[in-house]
User: Which sequence fits this backbone?
């Protein structure tokens, strides 16, 4: 009886709290993915510190008496950026992802050379908590390259992995045909109808134990959609049905946590759908770790199948309303390019990955000679959202999910064209997984491609924000009057950074509300909290107490379009829509 809890979506200070709550619910196992892109952000450069300290997380789980299921497959999905694959793979257009391609496999093996020796001592065969590991994740939903699956299995075993190996797929014929291999336990993923799902699994694996590796007890949210919920009673009844089938289960998710920074993924079925920062998932624990009705309903079901001690939970983590925070300084993006980026020069626009950039924004600039009559300005394949400026004036926004062009005429003296593109998260599931960011084909005025571009990569890592030259903001003026940019059609559309401070006497969890703001990114004390957008459903950004300091704290907001007033609120409750 397992619950999913991703160490990389929870600040390390709270790992113990979340694991103790998992155990108190009656679960005996914790499951976690391992995202390749978090641990090898640049090829050959590895990170296993802070929120990436997987060894400490697994060790702690073992110390608390929990078994661990680990999913270190190269691809994880998980609504995580690029399904956990590192974006630098896309610098080589010839690499065939998730296949027996020798170049791709060589990258996987180089990663495993570093990762798997860390996991090997933690296996149950060596006295550790790890009882099983996954070789690939829902591969039958993507491909049927059995040589690839065998190669990943071999790579793991050659590096000392000797616990139970498994795959996980949907309970469909084509998925189980494509995603399973002999000698590896097949498990299934579903949200309902366990009897039918297990019957299908039995057709392909008649004699092995039954396991639902992902019982979807909630769901994730995309921007511009409603917040997803599932009732506690429905969740509990399905778990009862699973246990009555004699099967094992893993709750996906027991605790979702947060896609901090730029790590949210995206889906693309009929259109591109970026995932919000909150990974609350309507799980048993809320985004900030509070047991929900679903928690107690699931525990009650477990008590019918296992003897549990009286419920004992860790002390609640307090939340605080720190009130309004004035952002008293600002710096316009276009006035700060020298501090934020070193430009590169290319004949054609190139995507981020070709320039060694992974996340954030990228600015493409060129000059169009004039005069030219009005024709459509076409961004041929833009990923994902572009703000377009002509001679410093905002002309409009072109979004990947609603393809459009902008009418553009050029005066006799010519026109400076600037296109600011936001990477809103790489696709994490399905056949469109290869998802380079920026302008991937070209820019046309009418049918004529435009050449000669200055490109500013803008990953917006906090270290670069420290170089900005902020100026005071008049206290009660609108964003347009604060120097954030010119007024276009009644709306300020010049991107700017805003900075303010707030005092904390006692640290507590809090939630950043940006009512009156439009779209952007927020940082507290140098930590990237993630994106906000008035398109919803998410209305607050979670700030765990460990990110705060007693005394003065710094808040920086990068706003793309403009705000009603340069102030925000730190509230004591989340608002996920």
Assistant:
């Amino acid at each position: 009886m397992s619950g999913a809890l991703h160490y990389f979506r929870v600040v390390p200070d709270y790992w113990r709290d979340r694991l103790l709550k998992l155990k108190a619910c009656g679960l005996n196992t914790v499951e976690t993915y391992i995202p390749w892109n978090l641990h090898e952000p640049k090829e050959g450069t590895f990170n296993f510190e802070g929120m990436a300290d997987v060894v400490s997380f697994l060790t702690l789980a073992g110390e608390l008496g929990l078994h661990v299921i680990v999913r270190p497959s190269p691809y994880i999905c998980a609504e995580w950026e690029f399904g956990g694959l590192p974006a630098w793979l896309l610098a080589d257009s010839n690499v065939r992802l998730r296949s027996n391609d020798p170049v791709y496999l060589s990258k996987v093996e180089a990663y495993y050379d570093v990762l798997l020796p860390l996991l090997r001592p933690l296996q149950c065969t060596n006295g550790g908590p790890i009882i099983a590991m996954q070789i690939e994740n829902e591969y039958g939903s993507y491909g049927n390259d059995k040589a690839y699956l065998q190669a990943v299995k071999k790579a793991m075993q050659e590096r000392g992995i000797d616990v139970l190996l498994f795959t996980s797929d949907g309970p469909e014929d084509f998925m189980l045909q494509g995603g399973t291999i002999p000698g590896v336990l097949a498990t299934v993923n579903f949200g309902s109808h366990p009897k039918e799902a297990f019957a299908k699994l039995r057709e392909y694996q008649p004699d092995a134990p039954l396991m639902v590796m992902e019982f979807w007890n909630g769901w994730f949210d995309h921007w511009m959609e409603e917040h997803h919920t599932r009732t506690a009673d429905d969740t509990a009844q399905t778990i009862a049905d699973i246990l009555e089938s004699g099967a094992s289960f893993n709750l996906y998710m027991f605790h979702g946590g947060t896609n901090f920074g730029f790590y949210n993924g995206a889906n693309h079925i009929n259109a591109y759908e970026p995932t919000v920062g909150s990974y609350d998932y309507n799980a048993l624990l809320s985004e900030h770790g509070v047991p929900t009705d679903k928690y107690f309903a699931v525990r009650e079901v477990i008590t019918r199948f296992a003897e549990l001690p009286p419920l004992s939970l860790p002390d609640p983590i307090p939340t605080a309303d720190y009130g309004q925070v004035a952002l008293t300084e600002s710096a316009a993006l276009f006035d700060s390019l020298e501090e934020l980026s070193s430009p590169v020069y290319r004949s054609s626009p190139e995507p981020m990955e070709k320039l060694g950039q992974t996340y954030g924004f990228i600015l493409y600039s060129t000059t169009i000679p004039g005069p030219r009559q009005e024709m459509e300005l076409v961004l041929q394949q833009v990923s994902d959202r572009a703000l377009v400026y002509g001679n410093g004036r905002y002309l409009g926004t072109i979004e990947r999910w609603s393809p459009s062009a902008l009418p553009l005429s050029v005066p006799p003296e010519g026109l400076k064209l600037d296109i600011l593109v936001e990477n809103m998260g790489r696709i994490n599931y399905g056949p469109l997984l290869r998802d380079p960011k920026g302008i991937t084909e070209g820019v046309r005025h009418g049918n004529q491609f435009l050449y000669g571009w200055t490109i500013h990569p803008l990953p917006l890592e906090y270290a670069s924000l420290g170089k900005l030259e902020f100026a005071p903001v008049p206290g009660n003026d609108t964003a347009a009057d604060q120097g954030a940019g010119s007024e276009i059609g009644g709306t300020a559309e010049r991107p700017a950074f805003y900075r303010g401070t707030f005092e904390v006497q006692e640290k507590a969890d809090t939630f950043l509300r940006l009512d009156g703001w439009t779209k952007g990114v927020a940082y507290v004390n140098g930590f990237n909290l993630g994106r906000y957008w008035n398109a919803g459903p998410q209305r607050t950004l979670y700030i765990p107490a460990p990110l705060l300091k007693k005394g003065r704290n710094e808040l920086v907001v990068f706003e793309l379009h403009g705000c009603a007033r340069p102030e925000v609120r730190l509230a004591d409750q989340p608002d996920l829509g």
Notes: The radius of gyration is 25 Å. DSSP finds eleven helices and 31 strands in the chain.
